[in-house]
Amino acid sequence: MNERLSTAWTLAQKVINYPLIELGDSPVTLNSILRLLVLGVLVLVAERYLRHVLRRRILSLTKLEPDLQYAVSRFVGYCFIAVGFFFALKSIHLDLSALAVVVGGLGIGIGFGMQNVISNFVSGLIILAERPIALGHRIEVGGVAGKVTRISLRSTAVVTNDNITIIVPNSDFISSPVTNWSHGDPKVRLRLPVGVAYGSDVTKLKRVLLEVAARNPAVLKDPAPSLFFIGFGDSSMDFELGVWTVEMAHNPLRFRSELYYAMEEALRQNHIEIPFPQRDLHLRSGKLVLENKSSNQTDITMRE
């Protein structure tokens, strides 16, 4: 019985230590592969624990923003994984110099295939370092408008007013213009265009629209609202109601809608007409003549 166990053990050792391939002077065996897998799992588990301790025990005591704490912990975790796998490969006595050519070739291929991922990763580091956006900010980028709820190293989560979460790649915040309604001073001026019919009393119009703005609790008293006369349009006299508010960082669509509802009601009650596009046609007496200039165009002229 003991001889059989000894024979089986000897055979098992031969199997797990049998060189599968040769990397330089280091044979790769089943034993080294199993040890590398175990060490890799231990490195990943240790990295996760390290990130947890770093965020909860150390970074939480600093004045760093939560998203910046997350970024720092992730960066430290990536460095720990790189160092951990390096020592794991050294512990199984693997000749890393033999892997230089293979790793170099794989690096070039992976680099071309992961250009977008790398670009988003670097953009995430830039965002977290320069702080152009932060958690809770209301932004507009690439046709997406909403509130920033999460910033990671690859992408940023933006929640719209319809409670739809849109994942925006971080590279969009670097390569595209970004409107941040919450950056610095959230107080902004909103311009609401309105056109009235020719012949309207513009003094009365100014009084009515400024009263509408003053009644809205979201409109700031200082700076005061103002009405701008933009110019004479084809069918209307064009104005813009300028109001200062902080609502553009919270509920911009609702704020605009409330003001437009109030403006329409006030104009209707004060009999101030909002015109629609119109054209005046003037005809002179005479004979109507059709002149055929081409197969696709006919001129209509009036002759005396």
Keywords for this entry:
elongated; 23% strand; 3 domains; 5-stranded antiparallel β-sheet; alpha+beta; SH3 type barrels; 304 residues; 8 helices
User: pLDDT average, as an integer?
Assistant: 80
Structural class: alpha+beta
Distance between the termini: 129 Å
Helix content: 40-55%
Task: Indicate the multimeric state.
Answer: single chain
Number of strands: 12
Total helices: the number is 8
Count of discrete domains = 3
Strand content: 15-25%
Shape: elongated
Summarize the biggest pleated sheet.
Answer: 5 strands, antiparallel
Low-confidence stretches: 298-304
Rounded Rg: 35 Å
Please provide the ordered H/E string of secondary-structure elements: HEEHHHHEEEEHEEHEEHEE
Lateral strand order in the biggest sheet:
6-5-4-3-7
Report on this structure.
Strand 5 and strand 6 (165-169) form a beta hairpin. This protein has 3 domains: 14-113, no CATH class; 131-180, SH3 type barrels (Roll), CATH 2.30.30.60; 188-269, Alpha-Beta Plaits. The chain has 304 residues and is α+β, with helices and mostly antiparallel strands. The chain has a 5-stranded antiparallel β-sheet. It has helices at 2-16, 30-58, 66-91, 100-113, 115-130, 171-175, 202-215, 252-269, and strands spanning 19-23, 26-29, 138-141, 144-151, 155-159, 165-169, 178-180, 188-196, 226-232, 237-245, 287-292, 298-303. Helix 2 runs antiparallel to helix 3 (66-91) and helix 7 packs across helix 8.
